[in-house]
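Troubleshooting log. The previous run stalled partway through. Resubmitting the same two chains, unchanged.
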Amino acid sequence: MTVARLLVAQGGGPTAVINQSLVGVVLQARHFSSVQQVLGARHGVRGIVADDMLDLTHESAERLEAVAATPAAALGSTRDKPDAAYCQAIFATLKRRAVTHFFYIGGNDSADTVRIVSEEAARQGYPLRCMHIPKTIDNDLMGNDHTPGYPSAARFVAQAFAGASLDNAALPGVYVAVVMGRHAGFLTAAAALSRTHADDGPHLIYLPERTFDTARFLADVKAVHERLGRCVVAVSEGIHDASGQAMAAQLVPNAERDAHGNLQLSGTGALADALCEQIKSQLKIKRVRGDTFGYLQRSFLGCVSEVDQLEAREAAAFAVRHALGGSGGDGSVAIRRVARAGGVHEGAYEAGYALQALQAVAAKTRVMDDAFINGAGNDVTAAFCDYLRPLLGSSMPRAARLASPLLPKT
Amino acid sequence: MTVARLLVAQGGGPTAVINQSLVGVVLQARHFSSVQQVLGARHGVRGIVADDMLDLTHESAERLEAVAATPAAALGSTRDKPDAAYCQAIFATLKRRAVTHFFYIGGNDSADTVRIVSEEAARQGYPLRCMHIPKTIDNDLMGNDHTPGYPSAARFVAQAFAGASLDNAALPGVYVAVVMGRHAGFLTAAAALSRTHADDGPHLIYLPERTFDTARFLADVKAVHERLGRCVVAVSEGIHDASGQAMAAQLVPNAERDAHGNLQLSGTGALADALCEQIKSQLKIKRVRGDTFGYLQRSFLGCVSEVDQLEAREAAAFAVRHALGGSGGDGSVAIRRVARAGGVHEGAYEAGYALQALQAVAAKTRVMDDAFINGAGNDVTAAFCDYLRPLLGSSMPRAARLASPLLPKT
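Second attempt completed without errors. Output:
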C-alpha cells in the first residue's frame, strides 16, 4: 500500500467554521490506514514556503472538536496571493516533505493557488493530489449553491439587524450599517432575514451588484423616513458608481490601498460615517447613526449556524474521501442544493457535495442572481429569503412586539 | 380596598433585558387584586406628556414572555431629560389618568426624573408612589453592585473580543475596537473576560477612569507588537486627556454635539479610525484595523446573559412588591451582591435587592473602583474579572487552540 502524507492549510479571511473544515480533514484522514502523517502549515501558503509545520497526526479528537467549534483559523492564515515563482516554492516544500495530498481551505484566490501547484506537480511528474476546500463569508465561489462560512456570517448580520432595527424603533432616527462584501452582496442581503414585522428594518438594502447613486439613495431614505419616522439601511462596503469606482474612494478622502491597489474597505468606519454625513447635510435629519460591522461579522465567538458547521466539516471530509479513496483527479469541492419533489423549501433543504475543476473556481467571482434583487435595486426578493433561510440554522431568535391596545387620549 | 393604577415607561438607551423589567412590572402587578389598570407610556416621559398610552392590563402572558426575550425597548424610549416644567407636565397626565404608581425603567437621568415627579406629587399632596427600576449597559448607577443590561452587553463585548483576538492571531496586525462608555469603563473592561490563553487579546485596555496619553498609548502598542507580532486594543469611547477633553474631540475634526453640548461618541467610527491613523503614521505598522462596536453591543438579538434576564425581571418585581405591598416610600431599586462565607466566587454568586433613596442615584455617575484597574492604567485587574465573571451567565463559548507539536524544519 502506498504511504499517504497529507498537508492541510488555511488561507484568506477567517470564518466561524473554517476550523470545522480543518478538523474534517484530520478526522476523516484517520479512516485511511495509508495515512502516515497529517501536517498543518501555519499561516497558509506562507507557512508552506517557510516550512513552518505542525504535526496534526496525533492531535486528540477532544481538542480537535473544541478547535472546530472555535472561529478564525487555528493554523493561522495569510493574505499572500502566490504567483508562479511562489507556487514553485510551495511545491519544493511539499516535495521535500514527501507530501502526497495537499488540501487548501480558502476562497477563489486559494483555489487559484491550488490550481497552479497542481499544474506544477503534473509538469514535474510528481504524484500529488491537490484539493481545494471552499471557504468564504462572501459566498462568491462559482459552482457552489453557497460556501462554508457564509451561513454563520449571514446569521450574525441577520441577528445584528434585528437588534438594530428594534433599537431604531425605540429611539427613532436613521441608522446605516455597512456590511462586508467587495463584489458580491450576499452578506449584506442577509440583513433582510432579520425582518419579522412588515415595518421592520432594514428598509433599504444596497448591494455591489447594482450601481449606487447618491441622489437616489437620499431620496429613498427620505421617503422611508417620512413614512415611518425612522429608517434602517444596509449597505455593502463594495457599493460603487456607474463607472465602477467605489463609493468609499469617492466619499472618503485618503482611503488606504493595499499592495494590489485594492481599497481598504474593512477595518474602518469611514464609509458609514460619510453616508451619514450625506443624510445629515442633505436631508436635514437630526439623529443619524452609522455602524460598520467590521471583523465581528466573521469572527464573533458564539454566533454560528449548525448547518454551516456540518457542511464545512462534510465538505472537507468529502475532499479527503475523494483524494484518498476516489479515482478522480484534482479539484475543488462544491456544495450543491439537493432539489426535492415539491420544490426547495425549509423542510426539504439538503446539501450535496460534488467535485468541480479547479479552473471553474480559481480567481473567479460569483455575484448575486438578478432574481435575488428587487427591481428598484434597493432590496432583495422573497426568492433570496427562501434561498438563505434554511442555511441560518435552527433556533434563530425572533423579535416580539406588544399587541396591547392604544388608549384614546384623555 | 384602594384601587391601584400603574404606569410603566422605559427611558434612555435600549438594552438586551429592559423588556424583562417591563414584563416584570406587568406580571408582578397581576398578583395584586387592587390593580385595576397597567398603562404603558410610549417613548418614555415623552409619551406621558403626550398621553400616548398602551393598555397593558390584559396583554397575554405568552406575548409578554416573547417580548421579555426581545432586546431594545418594547414601549419605545426617549433621550429627553425633563426639567421642572417638563416634570409638571408628566405629573399632570398621571393625575388625569388617576395613576397611583409610577415605574420608570432607566439610568441616572431617568432616576432624576422620578425624583422630581416624586417631589412634585408630595408638594401637591397627591398620593403617588414613584419607583425607579435600574437599567444601563454603562453599569454606572450609584449604590448598585451592577445594573440590569450591563451583564448582557458585557457578554457581547467579551464574545466579540474573543473572536477578534482569534482573527488577529490568524492574520496578525494591530486591531483597535472602541466600546461604549462615556464616563465609566465597565463595558470596555469586559473585553478582559474574553481571554482564555496568556497571550490572548485584548493586550491593552484604556478606560475613561484614567487619563489617556497618546504617546504612552503608542509606546504600549509598540511594545506588545514587538513582543507578539500583533496587538489587540480595547478603547472606551470616553477616553480623554488630562484636562478632561475627550480624545474624540481632539482627534476627530467636526465631531457632532447634541443639544446638551455632549459630543457624539456612538454611531460613528471616527475615534477608532483616528487611533488607527496614529498607529500607522507614528509606528509605521502596516496592517492596522479599527472597529467600533456601535449599537450591536446593546441591541444584538441573541446575545444575552440569563443572570441578567433574571435580575432585570426580579428588580422590577421587587419594585412592584415594594410599591403595592410595602410600607416604605418612593425609591430606586438596587442590586446588591450577597456575600457568602468563603468569599465571593463563581459558585457562590447571588443577587439581593434593596431600595435606596432616589437622591442617591439621580443624576449621579458611578465609575470603576481603583482596585479594578491595573497600576499602568492600561488593563484591568483579576479582581475585576472575578467581579464580572458570574454575571455573564452560563455557556459562555470558549476558544480552543491546537496543541500539536511544531516540526523541525527540513
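Takeaways: Chain A has a mean pLDDT of 94. Chain A touches chain B through 81 residues (CB under 8 Å).
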